[in-house]
Amino acid sequence: METISQEQLTQLLKRITGYNSFRPGQEEVIRSVLAGRDTIAVLPTGAGKSLCYQLPVHLTGGTVLIVSPLLSLMEDQVAQLKREGEKSVAALNSFLTPGEKSAVLRNLHQYRFIFTSPEMLMQRHVSERLRSLRLAYIVADEAHCISQWGFDFRPDYLRLREWLAGFSERPPVLALTATASDKAIGDIENYLMMHSPAKYIHPPDRPNVALQIIPLKDREEKTEWIRREISRASGPGILYVQSRKRAEMLAGLLRADGVPAAAFHAGMEKDDRMLVQQQFLNGELEWICATNAFGMGINKPDVRRIIHDQFPPSAAQYIQEIGRAGRDGKQSLATLLYSPSDADAAVFISLDELPDPAAVRFLAECMNNGEPPEQAGERAGLSETAVRVAAYWIAEEGADGAAGRMEELAAGKSREIGEMIRFAEGDGCIRERLLNLFGARPVGTDVVCCSACGLPADLLANAVPAARNRPALLDWQERIDRLFGVASS
Ligand code: ADP
Ligand code: MG
User: Which residue lies with its CA nearest to atom 4 of ligand 1?
Assistant: First the structure.
């Protein structure tokens, strides 16, 4: 395609989105996609990565396929495109009824944007249909998921490789993420079969998110602090916790204190999760008490506070989670609570789940004998995630290979947790310490930095928001009943 002038590109931006100018990074990435190159774009949370795939297709024609890790994220992106007036968009996911799914599959060639999950993409009739479309380019959103284990481990992400290899002429691939270590970038290149991709890597700093670390004695002190702080601080906010139980418990305490709050975790029903997310997005809920199952890629511009009850097991995850604050560019605050026992708990939580070599061999043997891995895993006392990861590597590389992979994972996780412990316990500017872990430096000058550099009193002394005076929220079941017109007695 002949090169398009800056003026033409800006005009297109205006026509499609109404924005007047590109944000840092967007234009280069868009030009790289237009030039037909494989591209990796690492831009901070809220930088506007979606635009990088939304715009080029208006010049290339054809269809864009976006592989997205979470249903909720997919729904959010589809809704946003539709609000912007885009009609030819479809989400191919497990929310569809069989009838809806075949209707979408029949009409695939009519869509400009097709969102799907790696799991759906790997279904044979879907993968073949998608491969036969005139795809302008393929997008991997939140591409760091390719390189993760644990809650996020998705064998089908790794299988994208085979799917991509099946093209006689593969369309260019665009990988988008906010945080990527060198290892993650290597994995992205490898599993997405990229050919010398163009890389646009921006520092992950979010100058409008001030950072605070508060040392507390133990979990009880944390609970007290959270209740005190949240009953006087304005949201919207997300409180990240490490377990489903604690999410429920704290949400209950906050509601009792008159705060419109709800829990969100992977143990909840899909409909309940969607409802909570929706209520938070439209401002009916002010606080979400969530495990890491909440928030990836969700575009709620006015989140003012992020509180971590405990540090997540990696700096990349921490950056992702605090990055959900202040996407509108306004001043926001991220607080990490830290007590001395957190270090041991973090090591325990994330390493306990990893199967040891004996467990891997046991699983391999059972699988060899035709037993489903889930069943064998349960007998061996392994978590669902552990089984998913181990079974994938056993199938790929045999028992020894898989045991080796598990050891590599354990070593990597220990290193990452060690980094977070040093970060939480260290001295000096918190922002510099955090960015150091990514080999980056703070980008802003005049910023409200962190509790080590000193935070202004007015940022910390927020008034209770007016919204609190609303009547308490209905509970989910009641709301669902109302929505669907079931009479409540
Ligand atoms: P992320 O990089 O985290 O994926 P999104 O693509 O969700 O970020 O975009 C965050 C917000 O920024 C959205 O509301 C989007 O409409 C807005 N945005 C994106 N590009 C621009 C731009 N050039 N000018 C103004 N706002 C923009
Ligand atoms: Mg995004």
Answer: 49
Nearest atom within ligand 1 for CA of residue 323: 3
Atom of ligand 1 nearest to the CA of 47: 2
According to the model, what pLDDT value does residue 173 have? 98
What residues form DSSP beta bridges with 137?
Answer: 64
- State both tokens at 147: 């390189």
**Is 108 in contact with 91 (CB distance < 8 Å)?**
no
Q: Which long-range contacts (CB under 8 A, 24 or more apart) does 359-365 make?
A: 359/386, 359/390, 360/390, 360/394, 360/399, 360/402, 360/403, 360/406, 361/399, 361/403, 363/387, 363/390, 363/391, 363/394, 364/394, 364/398, 364/399, 364/402, 365/399
Cα separations in angstroms, 322 against 221, 292, 301, 305, 445: 22, 12, 13, 8, 20
What is the spatial distance between Cα 146 and Cα 192, in angstroms, rounded to a whole number? 9
295: its two tokens: 């928030």
Extract the tokens encoding 246: 């604690």
Per residue in 293-347, pLDDT (tens digit) is: 887 767 799 999 999 999 998 898 899 999 999 999 999 999 999 999 998 888 8
The set of residues, in sequence order, having a beta carbon less than 8 Å from that of 142 and lying 6+ positions away, is: 68, 69, 70, 73, 176, 177, 296, 297
Q: How far is the CA of 297 from the centre of ligand 2 (A)?
A: 4
The beta strand positions in 2-69, using DSSP E, are: 39-42, 63-67
Q: Tell me, what DSSP letter sits at residue 268?
A: S
pLDDT at 158: 86
pLDDT of residue 481: 54
Dihedral (CA of 278, 302, 52, 166) sign: negative
- The pTM of the full predicted model, rounded to 2 decimals, is 0.82
**SS3 category, 135:** strand
Q: For the chain, how far is it from start to end, CA to CA, in angstroms?
A: 64
Rounded to the nearest angstrom, the distance between the alpha carbon of 76 and the centre of ligand 2 is 10
Is the pLDDT reported for residue 470 higher than 70? Answer: no
The whole-angstrom separation of Cα 466 and Cα 234 is 9
Q: Please report the pLDDT score of residue 136 as a whole number.
A: 97
Read off the pLDDT of residues 259-302 as tens digits, 9 standing for 90 and up: 999 999 988 998 899 899 999 999 999 999 999 888 776 779 99
- Measured in Å, residue 236 CA sits from the centre of ligand 2 at 19
Reported confidence tier of residue 350, pLDDT bands at 50, 70, 90? confident
Please report the DSSP string for 188-235 in residue order. Answer: HHHHTT-SS-EEEE-----TTEEEEEEE-SSHHHHHHHHHHHHHHS--
Residue 483 has pLDDT above 80, yes or no: no
